Amino acid sequence: MKTLVLISQVPDTTARIAFTNSNTQFDGNGVTFIVNPYDEWYALVRALELKEAQGGTVTSITVGGVDTEATIRKALAIGADDAVRVDAQPNDAFEVAEQIAAYAKDKAYDLILAGKETIDHNGGQVGAMLAELLDLPYLPVVSKLDVAGTTATLECDVKGGVEVCEVALPLVVGCAKGMAEQRIPNMRGIMAARTKPLTVVPGATVEVTARTVAFELPPAKQACKMIPADDAGKLIELLHTEAKVI
Amino acid sequence: MSVLVFIETRGTKVAKAALEALTYGRKVADASGTTVTAVTFGDAPADQLGALSANKVVVARAVKTDDGQQLTKLVSAVAQAEGAQVIVFTQDNLGKAVAPRVAARLKAGQVAGAITLPDTANGFRVKRNVFSGKAQAWVEITSPTKVISMMPNSIPIEAGTGGATVEEFSGDLGTARITVKETRAAGAGIPLPEAEIVVSAGRGMKGPENWAGVEELAKLLGGATACSRPVADMHWRPHHEHVGQTGVAIRPNCYIAIGISGAIQHLAGVNQSKVIAVINKDPEAPFFKAADYGIVGDAFEVLPKLIEAAKKLKAEH
Ligand SMILES: Cc1cc2nc3c(=O)[nH]c(=O)nc-3n(C[C@H](O)[C@H](O)[C@H](O)COP(=O)(O)OP(=O)(O)OC[C@H]3O[C@@H](n4cnc5c(N)ncnc54)[C@H](O)[C@@H]3O)c2cc1C
Ligand SMILES: Nc1ncnc2c1ncn2[C@@H]1O[C@H](COP(=O)(O)O)[C@@H](O)[C@H]1O
């Protein structure tokens, strides 16, 4: 089985969020970047588990500048066989999807795994857009994935519950919690990652349909109103009469 | 020219998210002096949608499953027939399977998770949450057709005027490539992403055997239960209850957090709640900084008092 895993780079989950250039750009100063948790913990690890059980290859792909290479090496250390970096600076999910589609369209991947969303952009768009561009099925929030022969069985979070679905390969999957457990790369993996192939391909010319023009920080919270513990029932009263939310 | 609104409905009841999307579509249409067409599928109550904010309803009765590709073809075909300039979706699990596909197919820019109506003073800009609620971004769509996936619970519902025409869609949508083998309902209660009130608890509850009070309070308030990540990881609670950066992101009207420290990754999934109340025995718990109401105290003493007060409130109303 030939698997492609979409790996994006995001600021560490505890990073201070600030902006520069008149609030048009994320301020990466002093920020540690990591592999997007959904891509790493769920998509990549499940791809490796399937490969370990059934054979095949796992390639990672990232659309980004040279600054993403440390993150890509992390994916290699966890166990991807090789990595592709599409050299482009996308400003919108559609540009990412177009770049990956341009690379993947004639490579006949059986399985393409993305995260359910990036924790910085939070769009949940790239996987679905890629699937449309490649004319493949896509399931957005999948908590379990198995493959037998050419059929994938998936558990998908849907409104009000879970659906168990069957889809013939190839397909694109948005990977979420439940699919696999986080793996910490070991020393051997980290050493091996240094010599695994990381291919850089030039970005294709893509169509731009949307772009982020400005960032804002959300309005500051008002001070917290404290209620004494022995009068805790007052909370329910205040939520009803003052906040009017219950 | 029109505004298209994609509606998911099951059974005979029009879901809250659908009403919000219709209200959103109505406002966009009114601002540009055009009409609203609702597009839906399966056994949706098309007549009811017509009585709400739509001028026209197109329903594809033959589509029975959530096949993203069939639904994408449906929405795209109706969008083209209607000359739709703006297509409105809800940013929920089905919306995520269809909206980005429609955007890619029609080469339309998409705003995923919009929290405002479009600002057209300067191009076509819509605000959305980014960095898991720690910031917001204005996204400008530059293509002629625009796709907006609206964040649930970001617009107050307004009743419509009624009187729409209902049309059945008869075009070819191909066959579904996704086969649903089994559907498992997530318990009897209200699904977490749709709940207006959420009672959530963390490691401070000590063990799964102590959740009866959390469930009772949620039930009395007509809400759903949620939990922090370690609680789901230790299997004290099912994983679909895990909220936060790596779990479900929610934005209820009221979020009550009991014995949760308020780590930044937890806040990322709940900081969009309208009102946050925190119960924690540690006055230094970071959660108090993000809270509107706080009680410093032992959950095992506070929770029974909250239940008692909730019972009293329920008896009075
Ligand atoms: C990449 C990454 C992603 C993550 N994603 C998430 C996520 O999506 N969601 C999430 O929740 N976490 C997430 N985490 C974990 C997060 O950092 C915290 O570890 C977690 O939220 C802590 O859970 P907790 O508050 O239940 O437990 P603790 O941190 O152990 O806090 C328990 C709290 O309960 C209080 N307490 C104890 N006893 C009582 C009592 N009797 N009465 C009242 N209060 C009491 C304590 O004072 C304490 O504040 C993530 C971490 C990482 C690194
Ligand atoms: N620049 C990128 N390079 C590679 N994959 C990406 C990139 N951005 C997003 N993805 C993938 O698409 C998923 C959804 O991203 P998003 O649409 O931004 O929420 C992520 O979890 C990744 O798997």
Topology readout:
The complex is a heterodimer of chains A (246) and B (317).
Chain A: E1 2-6, E2 9-11, E3 19-20, E4 25-26, E5 33-35, H1 37-54, E6 57-63, H2 69-78, E7 82-87, H3 93-104, E8 111-115, H4 126-134, E9 138-148, E10 151-158, E11 161-168, E12 171-175, H5 187-195, E13 198-202, E14 210-216, E15 225-226, H6 233-241
Parallel strand pairs in A: 1-6, 1-8, 6-7, 7-13, 8-12, 9-12
Antiparallel strand pairs in A: 2-5, 3-4, 9-10, 10-11
Helix pairs in contact in A: 2-5, 3-4
Chain B: E1 2-6, H1 16-31, E2 35-41, H2 46-51, E3 56-60, H3 68-82, E4 84-90, H4 93-106, E5 109-114, E6 125-130, E7 135-141, E8 146-150, E9 165-168, E10 178-185, E11 197-201, H5 212-221, E12 224-227, H6 229-233, E13 254-258, H7 264-270, E14 275-280, E15 293-296, H8 299-316
Parallel strand pairs in B: 1-2, 1-4, 2-3, 3-9, 4-8, 5-8, 11-12, 11-13, 13-14, 14-15
Antiparallel strand pairs in B: 6-7
Please explain how this structure is put together.
The complex is a heterodimer of chains A (246) and B (317). Chain A is an alpha/beta fold and 246 residues long. Chain A is 27% helix and 32% strand. In chain A, helix 3 packs across helix 4. The radius of gyration of chain A is 21 Å and the shape is globular. Chain B is of the alpha/beta class. Chain B has two domains: 167 residues, Rossmann fold (3-Layer(aba) Sandwich), CATH 3.40.50; 125 residues, 3-Layer(aba) Sandwich (Rossmann fold). In chain B, 29% of the residues lie in helices and 26% in strands. Chain B contains eight helices and 15 strands. In chain B, the strands form three sheets. In chain B, strands 5-8-4-1-2-3-9 form a seven-stranded parallel sheet, sandwiched between helices. A five-stranded parallel sheet of chain B has the order 12-11-13-14-15. In chain B, helix 1 links the parallel strand 1 and strand 2. Adenosine monophosphate binds next to helix 1, strand 6, helix 3, strand 8 and helix 4 of chain A.
